[in-house]
Amino acid sequence: MIFLNAVLSQQHAPEKLPAAVRAALGKPLRRAATLTQLALVGALACLPKERRHLPTALLWQSTSGPRLETLTLLEEVCHGSAEPMPYDFLASQPAIAAAQIQPFLPGLQSATHFPLDTENEANWSLLLTLASNWLNEGRYAQVLCAHLDSWAESANAHWLALSNTALENAPANLHIRTMNYSDALPDTPDFPATLADWLAQPSSRVLHLQSSATPRLAVEFAQI
Amino acid sequence: MTRPVYIASSGLICARGDSPAKVSQALWAGECTSGKRQLGEREFPYFSLPLSEADWLTRAEQAVSHVAAQLGPLAAETALFLASSSFQIGHFEEQGGPFELPIATASFSRRIAEWMHLSGPRYSFSNACTSGFSAIDAARSLIAAGQLDEAIVVGIELANRSTLAGFAAMELLSRTHCQPFDAKRDGLVLGEAVAAVRLSAKPATWRITGLCTGLDAYSTTGPDPQGGPIAKVAVDCLKEAKINPADIELVKLQAAGSPGTDLAEANALRQIFGNTLPPLLSLKPYLGHTLGASGIAELVTLLACLTLDQIPTTAGFKKVDPEIALFPMVDRSNAHIQRALLNLIGFGGGLASMIIERRT
């Protein structure tokens, strides 16, 4: 059985994100790109202290990617001197986020970044299916699934924390179904916000998530 | 439900040729020359694709279409898993400023799917040098669980100034050539590749029996020099494959000629295998380090070599580094390999190991 232990949505004004990081860590996180800061604040909010050492995987998707950092890199490479500032290059590489997060989440064993290719579409169904498979195999004790976006005007994060053990306040369990559901919710970046609404005021016994691209694969949530 | 996952077919274009067979022949012949790329006042060796087209997108389409054709007929609804660390940034450079990035960062994946005539689900992966194995890991998980029957996994890394300049700015690049494990190794040599594998639940010659990913947070730019996290991932992979280190007959190294990463990998290998190491092979002196495509490009290259029982030497290696004290293969071999371990060590801390096994 796979349990949903946390559902979280966060929105930060970009200029206030470093303060949120300081509040979470008790100190600033130096030389961290916006997506890294967003990932750290959300991951720590999802996991209580006593679970941060457990074997954990992070699966995070993004529509924006490191957009502003990529623009800075392109300006430096194409319009500046031939070589960019090393930090500006590093900031454009989303893969380095995990190494900066792990000191604060010692159980983090693996991280995968899924850049998205279509506006208003997401890969939640893939992330949750992988998380479910890996938890069933015993590969990890918990999997954090996220959608993180960094735009000029806002930094947005949506999180789902899954485990094969239910926390005291776990709101739902989930199953992967290989069939089509006509009433399924579409796979959009803000799906966790919709899921949170359903958990607060359930209109049906179960809720299905299904990507239009995968008609035979759905995620079913049932309240506990 | 858990099913074995096989590599049913593959495709490749890289500096050494435009098919797996041509690439393996070139490696067996010891061909490892590279070209050059200029960056300001500095010049770096670089492994370019054998394509004459200059326009970035047209060139990308040629490369992708060429590789897709090698995979055999593809059902349009086949799921596509795409790995890259730079996607279409070379296209943005070519267009020039003001730069207009698409809303969705991996919109290039849609175009790749169109070029491959695939309309099924698309998933993109960007985990630096381990992107390819991350994509295979996900596709394999869905096939093993019965949630997919088949998937195409593509690794793509095409020439761009941003990556070359970024690595140059960090002083990670060699100015001469790629020398894995060598005493005089002085950095990476980058290259381009497009490579693909078709993963299937249907039995084929090669099976993926283990694949594990990990994280080394020692630094954002290099692994723990003691190699502990690298060794842990490989040992986990051996456990998943239910084999002992002595069952591994060949290791495809990450070894890119990087002073620090090569040392970490060597220390990890000693922890895994003790004093009885299997033959060690680096393919990067032939292909260059193709970053997000490297996992799949090197997997396809290795499979082509192993299928013909023609294992090349590790070009570029001349003199052992006493600190590493390991020798990669310096003689060609016709050994019939049953099981091989493939290592990836990524920029940014990503780690991955895969074990492939020949079906007899």
Walk me through this protein's architecture.
The complex is a heterodimer of chains A (224) and B (360). Chain A has helices spanning 17-25, 34-46, 67-79, 86-91, 97-101, 124-137, 191-200, and strands at residues 2-12, 56-62, 108-115, 142-150, 155-163, 172-177, 206-210, 218-223. By secondary structure, chain A is of the alpha+beta class. Chain A is globular, with a radius of gyration of 18 Å. The model of chain A has no long low-confidence stretch (mean pLDDT 96). Chain B is an alpha/beta fold. Chain B has a ten-stranded mixed β-sheet with strand order 5-4-6-8-1-9-13-12-10-11, sandwiched between helices. Chain B has a three-stranded mixed β-sheet with strand order 2-3-7, covered by helices on one side. In chain B, helix 8 (259-273) links the parallel strand 10 and strand 11 (280-281). In chain B, helix 1 packs across helix 10 (294-307) and helix 7 (228-241) crosses helix 8. The interface between A and B is large, with 57 and 64 residues.
- The quaternary structure here is heterodimer
Q: Strand tally of chain B, please?
A: 13
The major β-sheet of chain A equals:
8 strands, mixed
Instruction: Give the spatial strand order of the biggest sheet of chain B.
Output: 5-4-6-8-1-9-13-12-10-11
Structural classification of chain B = alpha/beta
Total helix count of chain B? Answer: 10
Approximate shape of chain A: globular
Computed CA radius of gyration of chain A, to the nearest angstrom: 18 Å
Largest sheet of chain B: 10 strands, mixed
Residues in helix, % of chain B: 25-40%
- The share of residues in extended strands of chain B comes to 15-25%
Averaged pLDDT of chain B, please?
A: 97
Query: What proportion strand of chain A?
Result: 25-35%
Q: Report the largest inter-chain contact.
A: A-B, 57 and 64 residues
* Computed structural class of chain A: alpha+beta
Q: Extract low-pLDDT stretches of chain B.
A: none
In which order are the strands of the major sheet of chain A placed?
Answer: 3-2-4-5-1-6-8-7
Shape of chain B: globular
